[in-house]
Structure formats: C-alpha cells, structure tokens
Amino acid sequence: MPPEEPPNGHPPASPPDSGSAPPRRTALKVLGGVVAAGAIGTATYGSIASASGGEDLRSALTIIAPAAAGGGWDTAARSMQQAQRAGGIVNNTQVVNIPGAGGTIALSSLAGQRGHAETLMIGGTGLLAATIQYGSSTTLDDVTNLGVVVEENDVIVVPGDSEFESLDDLVEAWKKDVGGIPWTGGGSFDQLVVTQLAVAAGVTGSEVNYISSDGGGEATQALLNGTAKAASSGYPDSVDMIESGRLKALAVVAEKPIEGIDLPTTVDLGYDVTLTNWRSMHAPAGISEDEISQLLGIIEETIATPDWKESVRHYHWAENIVDRDEVQRYLDEQAELIRSLYEELGV
To answer: Which residue ranges are recorded for the region named Disordered (predicted)?
Structure first.
C-alpha cells in the first residue's frame, strides 16, 4: 500500500510540555495558527458536499486533509480551521480526513466534486510525488490549483556521537563506501531528499543504502541504535533530539538560511539540494473565476492571522508563498524534479 502522511509529510513536533522555483511573493503574510481539536472523520464526496453546501463560501467551508489525523497535512488543515474561526473569516469551517494511497484517494474525491467551490484540500510535495510514483489516474491537472502557502525543511542528521562533524565529512565517507553508510528517514519524501543529495554528491541514487522508517520517531531510533548512520528528517521531527545532543545536525535542506534554524544550508555548503515539504491549496475544477477569487481571499486572510503565524512559528514551518499566477509553473518544475529523482532511484 502506498505510504500516507506522516511518511509523505512529517507529523508535527510536540508542543512545549507535552530545478529553480519561480519568485516567491512576499506581499502575503506567513501562515500560523494553533491546531484545533475536534471530531475527525472520513468522508465521501456526497457527505463533504452536503456538509459545506451553500453559495456563500464564507458561510461554510470544508478543508480536506488527505491523510489520517496527526500528520503534516492534518496539522496544516486544522491550523487553517482555527485561524478562520478565530479571525471570523469563515462562519463554519470543517476538516475532513480522507487517508490513503499517499493522498491520491483524497485527490480523486476532490476531482469528483467538480463545480463545488465549498471545498478546499491541503496538498503538497508528498501528494505530487505519490501521483508520479504510483501512476495515479487523477493528478493535480484535474483540480484547481490555488497556490503554495508554507513549507517544512528537512535536516541532515547523524547520531550525537557520530564521527562525522560536517556534511563534507559524511559525503566523503559515503562516496568511498556507498553501501557502508546506511541512511534512513521518515518515508518516501525523505528518501527523495537523500536521493537529491546523492546526485549532488556524485553518488548513484540506486546504490544508496536507504532504510525506510515509519515516521520520524522510528527513523530516530534507527540512528540511535546504530541501524543507520545518517538520516534526512523533517526539522520539527528532529529539533528536540538535536537540542538534547542525541542527534547532530549537519545541514538544513534549503536554498537560503531559515529564521530560527541556526544551521548551514545544503546550498551554502555546495550541494544543490533544495527539495522541501511544501503545503499547497487546491479546489475542485469547474468553479467560476468569482469563486476562485473568493477562495483566494479566504486563504490570504487566513495566513495573515496571528493564529496562523503562531502555528508557523510553533511547527517550524517556513514561508513559501507561490500565488495563483505562479503555481502551475511551480508545480510543473517540482514534478520534473521529482520524476528525475525517481528515475535516479530506478523506480
């Protein structure tokens, strides 16, 4: 069975105590928001449509999280829900979880709601990758792509007592003995990051010794018990272990330095590794330009709220605003990159 989130989108960190991309638009504000509690359910097209119905999109809106509760897509959806409630942006926002097949089951459900503008869906890198990896009959071309709002960055980590003190140290050892450096990660997205690093380092992707783990926690255990020597993992999954010294972070996978993450970027260190776990917004196809404008207005207001900004800070997300005019080009470029990485893997 194809992986779902958290493998395709890392689960959020626990709260305290408990190719070139197009230009990024900075006029919009970053996302944030406290994750809301509430009933979690799965739904078919009919139940979603009946839950949201009505012409006024600010009266009732459904946000689909294409995975079970607790993963990255679910966290983003519930952060939006809370921000819309707190900001009085939408009178009644519901979140519906539709897990399965790396998000492609939810994507098929959204595509089946053609003409129904009362539903949004959170998407992202993992969903795009799943449509490619599993040859999904439904793709992002079958829905209305509204934009990208935020991203989560991976970090390259090793055990705290590892002999490797820098990314160069790790890469040099890896190049000398590819199979002798077992890697791990929380799922298929992390494997794509490791593959992109392999390409940048001159290592053949299909020769990489990658041990897939079921989420960030299992990947961390593989590092700590010696099963793996290095990992690519979502920063939110790893930050506590990094701060405790049990893991050592060598680089953050990013093009530019990230506020709040005091690590060199892969690009700064000379490795063209930039794949991020971005979050996108989608609506059904066949909706009017007026409805698209309404949805874009709702999204812009949502990501400008203090609640959403707080979620961005709390979950260590980073701003990545790709607007409606740019999003198709962005998705096409990301799809080309992901296809090339799967080809490198021999998939």
So the answer is: 1-24
Tell whether 171 is covered by a domain.
yes
Whether residues 67 and 164 fall in one domain: no
Q: What is the pTM of this model?
A: 0.83
Sort 34 into a burial class: Cβ within 10 Å, 0-12 / 13-18 / 19+: middle
Q: CA-CA distance, 298 to 327, in Å (whole number)?
A: 17
Strands (E) in 12-153, as ranges, are: 60-65, 92-97, 119-124, 143-152
Q: What angle do CA 61, 64, 66 make, to 5 degrees?
A: 175
What's the pLDDT tens digit per position in 273-332? 999 999 999 999 999 999 999 999 999 999 999 999 999 999 999 989 999 999 999 999
Measure Cα distances from 103 to 45, 185, 230 in Å.
15, 19, 27
Token match 């470029």: residue?
A: 333
At residue 253, what are phi and psi to the nearest 5 degrees?
-80, 100
Q: Which amino acid does the sequence have at 96?
A: V
Backbone dihedral angles phi then psi of residue 164, each to the nearest 5 degrees = -85, 120
CA 146 to chain centre: 16
Q: What are phi and psi of 303, to 5 degrees?
A: -80, -5
Nearest to 76 by CA among 235, 278, 346: 278
pLDDT, tens digit (0-9, with 9 covering 90-100), for 226-269: 999 999 999 998 999 999 999 999 999 999 999 889 999 999 99
Spatial neighbors of 27 by CB under 8 A, at least 6 apart, are none
**Cβ neighbours around 139 below 10 Å, total:** 17
CA distance 181 to 332: 33
Q: In this structure, are 181 and 195 located in the same domain?
A: yes
Tally of domains within the chain: 2
